[in-house]
Amino acid sequence: MVYSRGIDTVLAFCFSFFIINILVLDIQLCLPSHLLPNFLIDFYSWYIREFDDYLFIERPNFFIGVIALESLVHVPLSIANAYGLFTKKAWSSTTCLIQGVSTITCLVAIIWDMVGSQKASRRMFMIYPPFMGFGLLMVVRGLYVPVYTKTTITHDVPKTTEATKKRA
Questions:
Q1: Comparing C-alpha atoms, which of 165, 97, 137, 118 is closest to residue 8?
Q2: pLDDT at 103 over 60
Q3: Where are the membrane-spanning stretches (predicted)?
């Protein structure tokens, strides 16, 4: 039970970060710049200068697809997961599993490109791979952490009924 609370706390932070990161930084790859406020464009420029992220500079097609997936799937799942974890909903294990597998799949493609292209800076290797750990934690949460919900017994069923009696 203590492990479950610790995992839920870490994942709640992770889901909050996903929502903010996708809505502030990643979405700028898919939207035209005239739709965005200047402070978001300035943040995007700072991020590219600071981390030398060639994926944001070159905008490869697979990366745009990953960002679109994150925008359309991960944001709603992150909101649902955060709500499900805070309110201890039974379905939160399933949604954590879905988002964990999706996160790992996206990161495998990104890290594979980073290693294969040999364009990635050291700082990029400090940013992307740790999220693989969060994805694995979501999968573990979805598969192994039990969800305790309130259950009520409506009525007792007698143990011996006509259907369960032995027939001679």
A1: 137
A2: yes
A3: 7-25, 61-84, 90-112, 124-144
Range of the structural domain that residue 1 is part of: 1-143
d(CA 63, CA 65): 5
- How far apart CA 124 and CA 54 sit, in angstroms, is 9
Residue 18 CB neighbour total at 10 angstroms? 23
Q: Which of 3, 8, 11 lies closest to 78 in space, CA to CA?
A: 11
Q: Does residue 37 form part of some domain?
A: yes
Residue 159 lies in a domain: no
Identify how many contiguous H helices and E strands the chain contains and give both numbers.
8, 0
What is the predicted pLDDT for the residue at 68? 93
Could you tell me if residue 3 is inside a domain? Answer: yes
Q: Which residue has the tokens 């990029």?
A: 124
Number of structural domains found in the chain:
1
CB atoms < 10 A from the CB of 106, how many? 23
pTM (two decimals): 0.79
Residues listed for the chain: 168
Structure tokens at 57: 């500079």
In a domain? residue 156: no
pLDDT tens, residue by residue, 42-94: 999 999 999 999 999 999 999 999 999 999 999 999 999 999 988 889 899 99
